[in-house]
Amino acid sequence: MKRVVPDSLGGWLFTVVVAAVVLIYGSSLITYFIFRDQAAAAAAASQAADQLIVFKRVIEQTPLRERLALIQGLNSPGLRMVITTRPLVVESDDVFTSRIIYRRLEAEFPEGTEIHTDSRIVESVGVERFPTQEEVRRELRRQRHEARRAQRPDEVMPPPPDRPPASIEAERRTIDLDSALRDIRGFQPFVRASIRFGDRAWLNARVDLNLTEASQRTRPFVWTTLITLLIAVLAVMGVRRATMPVSLFARAAERLGLGLNAEPLPESGTGEVRRAARAFNTMQSRLQRFVKDRTQMLAAISHDLRTPITRMRLRAEFVEDDEQRDKMLSDLDDMEAMISATLAFAREDAANEPATPTDVAALVARIVSDEEEGGHAVSYTGPESLERTIRPLGLKRALANIVGNAIKYGECADVSLSKTEDGIEILVEDNGPGIPDAEKEQVFTPFFRLEGSRSRDTGGTGLGMTIARNAIRSMGGDIELLDRAEGGLRARVTLPVTS
Q1: What residue spans in the chain does CATH classification 1.10.287.130 cover?
Q2: Better-predicted residue by pLDDT, 218 or 82
Q3: 355: helix, coil or strand?
Q4: CA-to-CA distance for 420 and 428, rounded, in angstroms?
Q5: Which of 44, 57, 368, 444 is the most exposed place for a label (fewest CB within 10 A)?
Q6: pLDDT above 90 (res 195)
Q7: What was the pLDDT predicted at 428?
């Protein structure tokens, strides 16, 4: 799940926006594909009803003697009309399209007008067509002739479309339109209607239904996909623009953690971003003033302390007792060293040093060589050259403090340098007693000493590891103290690729 779920604010916003769009359009597509046949049938039925209403109004405005000629002229392959004395559609069916056409025609014609609609489809193997006016006349004459012979009434209803003239031979089967809409290949859907026109006339019409082709039904899906992709692109641009200030704040906070002299944030963008940037810059300037005031205070104290220390050193020279004189001078040296270390810690010279391309391997080898010249058991393992962008003075001071502690408390120091995926790794190992787990973090606290004698020769000032961690962290790295399996302590220094 961690690989699938976004881990950033921009990823979450993009996922939410795209998911909402996909859900909306997806539900719309599902609704469309479920009800598209009904919608296509409703649209085709409405169009057929409009045609019938238009022709009905035209026929009403035409004199009775000219209506037959008008109807014959208006007939087309998609619309066939005849006038009979009996309806060709005996009764209405309950098909969806039939109900739509019936309601439209019912609203158009006077109240009480008799209307029959039929949407049952006749799929013919042979020829199946709507009878023409001349065929109806011939059929009526034939039925009248038979009626006279059998003494039957003159008016006999002509055969409906599902009983075509005997001259047309066809094998047919009736299909309900609602089920046939799923596959309209092989036959043309149509609607038949019979409308009473006056006292003795019926207007009979057969109108073809223009249903959407299967190729056209994919167009909504294509357009929906294109719109979704466009919205996704716009969402990416909008999310990046919206989350960019957050990324800027994160980088600014990282720079502030590495040093207080970072450039202030640009106060631009939306109102909320400007206010946040202004508050961040105000906080940074206050921290800078605080540190500056603290450094100036310590510098003033150091200056004031150095003067009496110098006077005490001169007076100690006049002490006749050599033993007492040496003790006094040693105490004064300790005081001066503690003041110098405190000032170095307060000034944070390593954090203010610019980062430059440096051969880290040569720097570490030089520290090891200096300790070897001092007669200490120190070794180096690693490449001859490894260049990285670091703060050389800060790294040298930090490694010197770590190596010095390893020599002082562990009697030796084995230094190794190697490259990692994230940067470089420096290990300093010794054979000393190690440090209890409960005190491994406390050794980085200012003025904390594992050795309780308070002697500078055995315990130092308690600022060496603090200065080392500050210097390494100012370059984006860190120091970690670990126990060795064979005994002793391992100090692990990690630095990123670019500090």
Answers
A1: 259-347
A2: 82
A3: coil
A4: 16
A5: 57
A6: no
A7: 93
Instruction: Give the pLDDT of residue 352.
Output: 63
Domain 259-347 has CATH 1.10.287.130: yes
| Domain span(s) for CATH 3.30.565.10 in the chain | 353-496
Pairwise CA distance, residues 207 & 452, whole Å: 108
What sign does the CA torsion over 237, 242, 246, 252 have? positive
pLDDT of residue 185: 44
DSSP 303: H
CATH homologous superfamily for the domain 353-496: Histidine kinase-like ATPase, C-terminal domain (3.30.565.10)
DSSP 76: B
As beta bridge partners, residue 495 has: 424
CA distance 463 to 344: 10
Which residues lie closer than 8 Å to 141 by C-beta, 6 or more apart?
A: none
Task: Pick 439 or 269 by higher pLDDT.
Answer: 439
Q: Tokens for 315?
A: 């007076």
Which residue is listed with tokens 């960019």? 244
Q: What is the pLDDT of residue 381?
A: 92
Residue 192: helix, strand or coil by DSSP?
Answer: strand
**Cα separation, 365 vs 380, whole angstroms:** 7
pTM above 0.85, yes or no: no
What distance in Å separates the CA atoms of residue 474 and residue 464, rounded to the nearest whole number? 15
Average pLDDT, the chain: 76
Q: How far apart are CA 15 and CA 9, in angstroms?
A: 10
Task: Extract the tokens encoding 491.
Answer: 């100090």
HSE at residue 319, side-chain half, CA atoms within 13 A, is 14
CA within 13 Å, CB half, 187: 22
Phi, psi of 79 (to 5 degrees): -145, 115
- One-letter amino acid of 188: Q
Residues with Cβ < 8 Å from 193, sequence gap 6 or more? 52, 89, 101, 105, 115, 116, 117, 118, 204, 205, 207
Q: Could you give the CA distance from residue 449 to residue 455 in angstroms, rounded to a whole number?
A: 10
Three-class DSSP labels, 3-31: CCCCCCHHHHHHHHHHHHHHHHHHHHHHH
The tokens of 243 are what? Answer: 């989350």
Both tokens assigned to 227: 């719109």
CA angle 192, 196, 197 (to 5 degrees): 115
Q: Which of 142, 52, 173 is nearest to 102 (CA)?
A: 52
Tokens 């130092």 found at: 460
What is the distance between the alpha carbons of residues 386 and 263, in angstroms, rounded to a whole number?
Answer: 30
Spell out the residues 6+ positions from residue 302 whose beta carbon is closer than 8 angstroms to its own. Answer: 339, 342, 343
